[in-house]
User: Fold these one by one.
Assistant:
Number 1:
Amino acid sequence: MDLTGVIKRRHPEYEDTLAHWEFLEATYNGGRKWFAKNIFAYHKEGKKEFKDRLSRAYRFNHTREIVNLVNKYVFRGEVKRQDDPTPALGEFWKRATRDGRTIQQFMRQADVKASTFGRIWIVVDSSLEDGEAISVADQKTGGSQIYAYIVPPTHMLDMGFGEDGELLWALIYEPVRDDDDPFTSSGCIKKRWRIWTRDKWYLICEKGSGTSMVCEVEKEGTNSLGVVPIVALDALGNHESQYTSPALINDVAYLDRAVANYLSNLDAIIQDQTFSQLAIPAQNLMPGDDDYKKMLEMGTKRVFVYDGEGGNGPFYLSPDVKQANLILQVIGKIINEIYHSVGVAGERTKEDNSKGIDNSSGVAKAYDFERVNSLLSAKSRSLEQAENEIARLVLLYAGEEKEVSDDFKYVTYAESYDVRGLMDEFSVCERLALIDAPKTVMRQQMRTLVDKLFPHLKKDLREAIESELKTYGETEEPRLPTASFPSVETNNPKWVAQ
């Protein structure tokens, strides 16, 4: 049966969004190929001039910087996974992918992809093709594995949803390189498509060549889960559509392209107008004589001539810097807007964004970071939901349906992202004690301090500390230490006497 018509299916939103996805991915990845498609010729520019300018083009990848900064902040918060998971889930967390990455590493990569595309899809699969439950013993003795992999939206061609919003089926493009054997493999990309349904899966490949090319099912198997094992991960937790979602860099990538084009224009100005040009009366310069050659050397290979009857002597023409200054001002404003739009302006300088040195004050950073806290919280909720769905699918693959429940959380991400550091918490404790703060306030501050001082406490030790905190300050007034830590406001230590 020829399935060519099946693999040509596309979701109604696919064709409209494909070019946007490809641009976002290319802008994040960067590289020299990016310039050929995204640096534009300006008005009346010659082909040779444009080719030369294109070869000199450069950029700082602000798009990648934004994605990586937000990813760093999201995973700076503590991710709490179940202390005593089932053997299958524990094994999956240790080796979540075919190449052996942990679940923490996999989710960090998934978050980067989600920020780039807006919505990605995570497939949970098993190396067993018969649909049977896979145990930990199977994984250790037979090399079988439950694993996950990322499908970008460019490869998620079409899908169907039921009335409850659950996936009924999905069509995925899965290209693979023919490189099994260095002597017999062609090294070419083989086009493959996989269809998932709630009870079956099919792997479709091209067969034949030219006009005799057909698409047929190469492999198929049973899906014993009863659900399509695909989880959606959104960059911003925004479910406006069942198929797409806004990316973190939706606007940043286009602003970044504008910066690259303005920098290229500035480079053209520098190349053409950096050096002053010699202007000399035409009457004193005749082509072909020795003086003409000397004047060309003095004039940096270019000489302007004019009628010298008025008695004016030779002089140098300085380039007009107004155009370059205008471009620099526009570049600075756009770069500032790029980082300001996602609340990480504190990562750039106030005066010169091009240097990339983090010299803004701690107070300014705190205020800037408060704005991005809601963004990080939204991303953490999206990651938490996706990882819990992944964990449920792993348990279903392992035949541990009894462990699956709708209200149980296997993973919890940070709900809020505090900007204060450990030394800031000590300073707050000092000041609360100095003003004789209520005992309840002191206890809460001590909990915050303990969380930052010992972020990975075992459960029994945390319970013991919490038990002591309940009676903190009841028997006697909290006392300040003999000497405090250096003040965070100046570089000079200030000691507080007992």
Note: The longest strand covers residues 214-222.
Number 2:
Amino acid sequence: MVLASPRQRPVSSQASPALPVGALTERIRSLPPVQQQEEMGRLVRTEVARVLGLSDPGKVQPNRPLQEAGLDSLMAVELRDRLGVLVEAKLPATLAFDHPTPAAITRHLLGLVEPAPLPSVAPVAPDAPIALVAAGCRFPGGVTGLDELWHLLECGADVIHPIPAERFSWEQWYDPDPSVPGRSYAREGGFVGDVAGFDAAFFGISPREAQSVDPQERLLLEATWQAIENAGWDARQLEGSATGVYIGLCGTDYQHRVMSDPARIDAWSLLGTTHSTVAGRLSYWLGLRGPNLPVDTACSSSLVALHLACQSLREGECNAAFVGGVNLLLEPSGFVYFSKVQALSPTGRCHTFSEEADGYVRAEGCAVVLLKRLADAQRDGDPILAVIRGSAVNQDGKSNGFTAPSGPAQEAVLRTALARAGISAAEVA
């Protein structure tokens, strides 16, 4: 038995039936592949323009959802009827719903003219190496790419500063005494600049909807586009591909903000802030058909997402995967909470492995990496920034306190990852 939600459907085991041999079908089949695409696309845009009442088919944008262009349910049926006459076949009434853009309808009709064989899914070796072919990122210190990140690490820059006023006024939330209710004794952190700057139209998001889109989603969209560009890929060729999306997410600051006033809740409030839709937007925007899931395992969320993506690539569930993590500090509640458990450093600095260690410092950022099986990346001539040979996940069970880490469990997960990678700890630089 295979169960799937409407957004995560199992692959059908039956190919679409071919169209009957009519005049159009014969003419399309006689053309070279590129011309087949051009001719069918021209015919589809012409019919879309007629249904929408446009005098110029050139105004029909191939990749714009027809619903956004004004197509309603009656128009969708009319478009189905017109295209059915054109290709001399009975098409489903859900045609414009299942294939929401002119480009998608074109691909569907071409698939009926010349049915493609079902894709084969062949898992590779369970220890097959995975290539990291590109990345995009946003981090404190003005970091907007890998070169800037490397420079920041190389020069040892300090990017911890007082909480920016545009987040919230830390003065009214600050008190050096951790016992004072509703106050934080920490007032510094690492913050990404210009989280409000966002080209919503570029990502197909309306101005009104953009107001309810979590800034974490905005950063993920930007970092994903950056990764695509850095890989040298054409984003249009990803549409319909078995590309997965695995995103580490645990912050809900923006959702708390937009849902705190019931009078301000609208149709976009949850669609723009729940973790499932934050991750789901990436697949929707690019038209990806691989697995899509947010992962919340607190501090390890993005690492677990990476582990799951590598498994999916080895199992053949996807041929490429976007893997990311994002966290923004938008509300004072998190600072107050971690002050109450005295987890934060009052000095605003981490003193790792030192007797002066007195807590951690909150910071934020976003990164998205693009993964492929190493053999596939080498075959396709992709850039290879790193190779993942092994990973592992566990839980420490009953340790010395619910939030306290367990040394033996951490050692065990490291040993398992090293064993799967086929290297010793001494080989790790």
Note: Residues 342 and 414 are 28 Å apart (CA to CA).
Number 3:
Amino acid sequence: MKIIFCYWDNLIEPKLTSAFENMGHTVMPFREPLREKDYDTDYLTKLITFVRAQSDVSFIISINFIPIISRACGFLNMPYLSWLCDCPCYSLYSNTFAEPHNYTFFFDRMHAERFQSIYPDANIYYLPGACDAMQYDNLFITGEEYNRYRSDVSFVGSLYAEKGAHARISQSLPPYLMGYADGIINAQLNVYGYNFMEDAITDAFIEAFKKHLDWHMAPDYLDDARSMIADYYFGYRCTMLDRINTLRAVSERFDTDLYTTSDTSMLPDIHNKGIADTWTMLPKIYHCSKINLEITSKTFKSGMTQRLFDIMAVGGFVISNYQSEIPEYFTPGEDVVLYESIPDLLDKISYYLAHEDERNRIAENGMAKARKYHSYELRIAEMLKQLPA
């Protein structure tokens, strides 16, 4: 097949491109800057012109759903495949989303089921993340690099303080509504593997929330206030508190490195290593860390993160919060270790730091299973099955 891949500098793009090419397909990257995902007419014109200059293009693909690409594919009468890596993804509420030429693949099953219930006739599929099976084979770490990246415990990711709009709502909502919101967020902090925040939001709260924040949506977007409030206002705040609370507790007891651009002044015991380059640093950090933490965003409903697959791909040992999809694909205690509370996490870090052989065995099992059953080539094969013959 000849495929046009619309790039926007996501880390999955080159991995997916290589997998397509390994399978014998031709990938033509389209790299024009995208100023606006919905109505960038310059991007639309350039994409249509680019496609028309080729022959026998089978489909266009992107990471995440981008409405302006869907509009171009509707004009070209061509399939548009998108594989989500973010949750939430605001563009899914665009009225272009359910067009029949779109084939959208969700890494999170519960997220997929939700949109399947909204758009039962749309081409919506569940497809979990993947690992680059070649990452470990191509990994070379010098002695100096090993000393630089080794740590007892590490985490790579944002603290989410710069995301969401909790500060805005705390200034706009009256105290009784803010107390209700914080009550839901604080209750969710104690629950792993099930996100109930959306279910806890009442119709009365939604109406009051809209009134006080002057709520409005783009004219051609679905107004699903309950889901958006749960994700963008509650979910980001809950993730921030969860990561800060977890990393504070871990760093108070163990030598802990954090790779982030977030403010870490509230974590005096953490070693803030700054930003980690995706290509030159991340695989080495994951491989050299005795324990890699996976603290999943509370906006994820049930799915596994790309970080989990990337850690496993290079033979890293990972302890993750419980997510309901993880035991479907990896055996806890054999391929991965899961925690269900902060005290449980602290106990498991202590145990696995003291049991190196067991830690290495689990890391090797996880890598073998990820490489065998969760490669990008296998995911592409599942995607292509959904296209019309």
Note: The two ends are 13 Å apart (CA to CA).
Number 4:
Amino acid sequence: LKVDLSKSLKEGSRGSTEGIRSHRARALLVSSEFALALVLLAGAGLLIRSFVALNQIDLGFDPHNVLTMRIALLGPHYQERVRQVEFFGDLLRNVQPLPGVKSAAVIDGCDLPPDGGCGMSFVIEGRPTPPPNLLPDASSRVISADYFRTMGIALVSGRYFTDADTNRTRRVVIINEALARDYWPGRDPIGGRLDFSSSLGVKQPIWFTIVGVVENVKNHGLEVAPRDEVYVPYTQYPTWFTPREFVVRASGDPALLAPAVRHAVAAIDKDQPISDVQTMDQIMSQAEAGHRFPMILLGVFAALALILAAIGIYGVVSYGVSQRAHEIGIRMALGAQKEDVLRLVVGQGIRLGVTGIGLGIVAALGLTRLMASLLYGVKPSDPFTFLMVCLTLLGVAGLACYIPSRRAAKIDPMIALRDE
């Protein structure tokens, strides 16, 4: 058998080149699939990192094992403030001894963290009083004495409220670290006094003495920096007390306490409705939903794009191996090793992947800027995310080329020469 191997190899190479050219559109499609996969994976990766960052935020309180509900106190009987105070005083005394209850508290109608908060302007004693439109203000919450213990808010200095803080004692207020830092930088604010008369619609000053400083709490959204806040005992609040949130810290599953708390409310006034019964964990989950849903949606599309890209590159490389079987056999007959064939085939697929990755990076750097509003704690061009996505795509390209390359390495050169 006389075969001109050099001539056959050249012909095989021409055939291979012609085959690659004839299927250039298929290769372009595979590269486009990789580019699309990179864009979607980069977006999903950024959202995942953002979601992880959100879950690592210091909330300033402990949301676990806390049950919440809203009690509106409807009816003419509760038009007077003293009646409201009596109702919630009775409720707190009835709920506290219940099995599984560690503490209970009441808070005004301003939403629970991490959303909402009512505002109050104030004047600081001993400092110049600015014009009404320039008064400093803070987010306010009217609470019962055990609110901080129930929500797991740590005391920084001073003391918490106690049951001794009533309408017959001096009015007291607790501020957060942000307010203390803004108006008493480097100093102890304990003992300072705040006048809230401008917010309460009263002409005469209503002074509240600062008795404590607590940690900052994410009361206005997970992504919003803590604002200045003041906490006032509901027993000393001088005006109308809006519909309230009732919170209970449980020693176990807080949802199991809901029937007992409902019964405690009915024992005082069976006509008072209870609404929005849920745990703080559920509230936090709802707060994170705005980040969770797009993350899952984009992740699903990214996974599909990655699968399509892997199938595409596998198909192109497999087809290329079948078209170049004669050339590969002759190369092996001329001394090429299996490792050389593996590098040849895998290299073809990796080149397609790298081309797609290059196109995808350019597109992703532009498109991920559009999702900046959905991100927290990570930049749209985060290099770590892009690096991990590129390595993932290269790994997928390598795996997709593995089976065709193994098949190519098993080609028997004698079959190729016999066919020649």
Note: The first helix runs from residue 5 to 22.
